[in-house]
Amino acid sequence: MSNLIEVKNLVKHFNSINAVNGISFSIKKGSCFGLLGPNGAGKTTTIEIMEGIKTPTSGNIYYKEKALGDQFRDEAGIMFQNTALQEFITVRETLELFASFYSKTTPITNLVESCSLEDFLNRDTRFLSGGQRQRVLLAIALINDPDIIFLDEPTTGLDPQSRRNFWKLIKDIKAQDKTILLTTHYMDEAFELCDEIAIMDQGKIIAFGPPSNLLNQHYNDVVLELPFNQETRNICNMLDNCIKKEEYLFIASDDVTSTVKILMDANISLNGLNIRPRTLDDLFLKLTGNKLRS
Hints:
4-stranded antiparallel beta sheet
């Protein structure tokens, strides 16, 4: 699989602030790539440079082995986190408006089907639900039949069912051999959708690779979760790698049998016990702060 985009030694300074500090990575054609990081990590600046919105202090970005230019602008689709839709016109009229900006477009009938717009195609944009609005914005990002699509926090504010419906749309788009660059604060979303991820912090990439590979590199244990109550409040005095967060205790263990035996020998009730594998949430917190240490 060839690289569609290459980022080389990217640097961006804002006066005394080093927002991006010499990062390099590539995105394979036909893949979904996730750029993750806490607020202030530099990922938004990186994305905006890649989209051609900001100019780097130094470094280069190559699209199909060429510097960003007219070809990239014609072949890129962008779904911003916050986009204002023209009011007092319908969804159909909105798509027709954006289609008029390009010489090459995806047929609107195709967009209606692929983004599931049938039920509200003739509705005024003022009266769209959150999920409907996001599907319209996705259709707009696809209006020029792009080879690469930038999705910036596309499911923020959506309910769980709408999020999962949106995931299906993204998977369907990727199945058309299109390349997707996704930013999200939902780690389960990144794990579900992304072939590779890069985690940024303080302007640098601190982890890169397929999500499952990264978890295997960093962990060989699981997490036991128990409700925090009067009976379990002293567990962290008995076990290493135990923390309290909100109303639960989290115990990292590479030997579940031994850990459970310790709890049972102490007459700790196992009601409400949940044993789960490590997740990208764990890795994200481990690398960027507030980690559950193992």
